[in-house]
Amino acid sequence: MEHPAPGIPLCLLLLLMTSSSSCFFSEASARINHGGGRQVSAPAAGQNSFPPVKLQIMDQYVVVGNGIVEVNLTNPGGSMTGIQYNGIDNLLEVVKSETDRGYWDVVWKGDGIIKKKGALDRLEGKNLTVITEEEEQVELSFTRKWSSELQGKPVPLDIDKRFVMRRGSSGFYTYAIYEHSQQHPAFQLANTRLVLKPRKDKFHYMAISDKKQRPMPLPEDRVPPRGQPLAYPEAVLLVDPIEPQFKGEVDDKYEYSMENRDIKVHGWMGKDPSSSVGFWQITPTSEFRSAGPLKQFLSSHDGPTCLAVFHSTHYTGADLMVPFEAGEAWKKVYGPVFVYFNSLESEVSSSSGTGMSLWDDAKNQLMIQAKQWPYQFLGSRDYPIPNQRGGITGRLSVHDPEISTRNLPPTGAWIGLAAPGDPGSWQLESKGYQFWTEVEEDGSFSISNVIAGQYNLYGWVPGFIGDYKYGAVINITPARSIEVGDLVFEPPRNASTLWEIGVPDRTAGEFFIPDANPNYINKLYLHQEKYRQYGLWERYAELYPEADLVYNVRTDDYRKDWFFAQVTRKKGDNGTYEGTTWQVKFSLDRAYQNVNYTLRIALATANGAELQVRVNDPSSAVPLFTTGSIGKDNTIARHGIHGVYRLFSVVVPGSLLVDGSNTVFLTQAINTGPFYGLMYDYIRLEGPLSTNPPRN
User: Fold this and answer.
1) Which family, according to the similarity comment (predicted)?
2) All domains of the chain, ordered by start, with CATH?
3) pTM of whole model > 0.85?
């Protein structure tokens, strides 16, 4: 059978949900587990009222549908060329080439790769295997094996991309298994993701959270002369958009980045939330994503584009490149992601009640998927089902004698399992899985459905500096939950707090964030998350054109007087920049000369920065302390308030301090460009109080 031309409905009768529809589907008897996968679980009650799932395999294409949704993929590549739903012949962008509509990809570096950012590999399959074909479910596997003859071309991994469609489901699942074996050479993994590109003539309204929803400009608006490129390619000023409502706004995909812990459902609708069709990605777990719950990833953005990013170096830099040695054995399952479609005429009105928006229904579907996770119907034995997983329970408290002699509840704390390492190492861990939860008000926590293996237990508590790590390696085994009992986090402290700046919450969000330049705004962030606005790094030089920031700990307010980022200052119009030195002024009733004080500096992020610390002598050629060059987070340019958390403890000899007025000088010395700098999370000076002098 010939494949229909793009834009022609694949099977309109199927969308009428007639069980006898056979357009583009095989009428052959059901075949089960062709590829040796596990048995499919029984369908939910009422599912048999829906048409069976059917599969048609052709020379160049594969079509799978269930009477609600129909997906067309290339054979054997496994790229998504078409998605039919609700009478729309294709939800994917038809003006794109067939292999540029829905796909998995990686960016990697290795021998023979000369591109600075690495080589892009679309992970085109070479073989198709039907894992499961039965009335309740179809699962397809598109695989590619690496061989030495391919050196320097595709990424040196064995790839297995899976697609699953179930009876009665308004969507499909996709996941992938990556494997590096003893035959594979060394390389570095920079990025891997699932990319879906909805049609620009059908989807105009984007939603990534309850508060972050908006109509979006067209991709043509980004191209000159309608769009004016700004300081980097991703940021474009819309000067003559097709729809005038967007004129004067900045469009930049990084304005829509989200923390890992918040990426659960996002996607697109028509003109507004009351439009008839929604296109969503749903991930009830983040176990397979890199770098823990605070790591930031791209989500949906202009295009329209709908991403599931599993690993990237955004907001962390090269430190999160995943290195593989030659012959290193490794395997990981990314996903599954549920790609969900809804409509006001059908699913929303019938299953969720009238008046529910597409977004509300998508959130409701997230809850449904979360109850089903870990899924028991996936065909790969590399994906552990519930009885192959374990768990851990316990109770966490905080002990800081400066605040209380009693242990304190860890309000807002997060605790999780990640690969064994140093405290905080989970921020840069990517080869394994991570499992996190927010603790209860009383400090109790329970993490279930953890993949078997060896982990460390990590955590952090807002309001306290530092990282928690449980002393012993924890061995999670199937069908067993480990009770670790009462745990106590003792945050770093040498002496009493003499003064402090900010709130230790791993972000710079509490500091002064200026209003956006009115020439470079995003209307979504006028009254929320102001740091998402473009060009805020330029506002520092406007506020401090000659002299740098001076902060008095006794009289100033960090919410008003401490700029959220220590950046460089542009010098004239010749494209050069200079480093900046901030001053922290404080008084001591008495400076004890024979005592060491401790200056705690918690950084929320750094990008090509060098922080130098001097005390009472700004002209000293040698600083008391320097971080050296740190960080490639690029948070300043990417509209963030945190990247990789870093804590430094600087010993300040009492001989450098004097009775009365003192000054700490904080110099960000690297001045290569506008995005070099850092953001503070919290600063504290510890030492003896005059009312409680040190003992000799």
Assistant:
1) Belongs to the polysaccharide lyase 4 family.
2) 12-372 (2.70.98.10), 386-489 (2.60.40.1120), 496-687 (2.60.120.260)
3) yes
